[in-house]
Amino acid sequence: MDRERISEESIPRMLIDVHIHTIYSDGRDDVERVLRVAELKGLDAVAITDHDTLQGYWRALRLESGLTVIPGYELKTDAGHILILGVEELPRLRRPLIYEEVIDWSRERGGLSIIAHPAVGRLKLNRWRRCPPDVVEALNAAYPLRMMMRIGLKVAGELGVPAVAGSDAHRALDVGNAYMELEGENLDVADILEALRRGRHRIGGGISPLPVRLRSGVGYIASLIKWSLSPLRTKPYRRS
After folding, report:
1. CA distance to 5, 116, 120, 160, 230, per residue, from 197 (Å)
2. Is the model more confident about 213 or about 164?
3. φ, ψ for residue 166 (rounded to 5)?
4. DSSP codes of every residue in the chain
5. Could you tell me the CA-to-CA distances from 219 to 101, 143, 187 in Å, in that order?
6. Number of C-alpha atoms within 13 angstroms, CB side, residue 184?
């Protein structure tokens, strides 16, 4: 048993967080601070996933750090929020964004699509079933309630895709609260995305401290109110 544990600990591993926000969208801290905290916490790779922009990614590339920086951003579609990783361009699709069109667009460009915080959007499950993403963010460290992790895992299981984790950090200090562990070291972006797509990773970390989750809960309630007033609710998508 001890020999097995020693052998496992000797395997090179990479720790990654693929859901992080900065001042380029609704985050509180700049990219420099985010990368500094990520390194201090022992992460090896990050994806800056600001809303509707790659500015955080481009800024991170210009800075000197020991981290692998993955292209990424978060998009709001008519069937929930989607993280797109590995694509260095934003979709030039009709607005509001249609979930199925975003998934197809990402796949055509070799991107990795992730349903973000699925526990707050289960009413869209039938849409997700008909057009599954590449993976599902089962553990989102900003979830207001711990039970949401179980819902996220169930969604991933029902869709038949791997479950991943992300901190959904809006402050640098929360980076790495949830992360993934991949076997190997110095993996490039393509290798990291392929490992996630095939489920060759382990989830680590957990729910963020209560004050962080309370802020997340308030934001979620506000988004529900905004969605209830949106014309999208009365225009369901029909895929041809």
Report:
1. 27, 15, 23, 12, 33
2. 164
3. -155, 150
4. -HHHHHHHHTS-EEEEEEEE--TTTT-SS-HHHHHHHHHHTT-SEEEE--BT--HHHHHHHHS--SSEEE-EEEEEEBTEEEEEES-SS-----SSBPHHHHHHHHHHTT-EEEE-SGGG-GGGHHHHHHS--SEEEEEETT-SSTHHHHHHHHHHHHHT--EEEE--BSSGGGTTSEEEEEESSS--HHHHHHHHHTT--EEEE-PPPHHHHHHHHHHHHHHHHHHHT-GGGG------
5. 26, 11, 35
6. 15
Diameter of the chain by CA atoms?
Answer: 60
Query: Contact, 175 vs 39, CB < 8 A?
Result: no
Tokens matching residue 16: 């990654």
Q: What's the pLDDT tens digit per position in 151-172?
A: 999 999 999 999 999 999 999 9
Structure tokens at 122: 């289960």
pTM, 2 dp: 0.85
The amino acid present at 143, given as its one-letter code, is: Y
Closest by CA to 119, choosing from 96, 89, 143, is 143
β-bridge pairing 72-77 and 202-205: unpaired
